[in-house]
Specification:
It contains 2 helices and 6 strands. A 6-stranded antiparallel beta sheet has the order 1-2-4-5-6-3, covered by helices on one side. It is globular and about 45 Å long. The chain has helices spanning 3-7, 54-66; strands at 21-25, 28-34, 77-89, 98-109, 112-121, 124-137.
């Protein structure tokens, strides 16, 4: 899926839509985001040595996983983060890096969904995490 197709599922828009593409591979969602270097979140993190903030990496991973919730995300609902667990930042992600995610839903108890994922640059693991969402009415 490209960005326009992703927008049909996710409510996120620029500058918070942080996926360039995402694809379903069986039970997994595999997302990609190229860190260009001019992103708003790099301007002060850090001026002379830009590094993608960990919370942004977690958001990219969550957006990837939400593609798996396509059937649960109806008009008038939003996917909201409810938790992050066992988050490990293993290697920095810098401008020019292609950050790739691989996520799956481990358990569903609607409206709650529990996921896990890994974020990599090439074969270098940068992030591992477990996280959860609730599908809530948009107000």
């Amino acid at each position: 899926m490209n960005r326009e197709e992703i927008k049909k599922i996710l409510p996120h828009r620029d500058p918070m839509l942080l996926l360039d593409e995402v694809n379903r591979e069986g039970e997994f969602a595999c997302g990609k985001y190229l860190v260009k270097g001019d992103e708003w979140f790099l301007k002060g993190h850090f001026p002379d040595a830009p590094v993608t903030p960990g919370v942004i990496l977690c958001e990219i991973m969550a957006q990837s996983a939400c593609i798996l919730l396509q059937d649960a995300l109806q008009d008038g609902t939003l996917p909201m983060y409810t938790g992050l667990n066992n988050v490990k930042f293993k290697s920095p992600v810098r401008p020019g890096d292609l950050f790739e995610t691989r996520c799956r839903i481990k358990r569903a108890m609607p409206p709650f969904y529990f996921a896990e994922g890994t974020g990599t640059v090439g074969d270098r693991v940068c992030l591992q995490a477990e996280f959860s969402f609730a599908i809530v009415p948009q107000k």
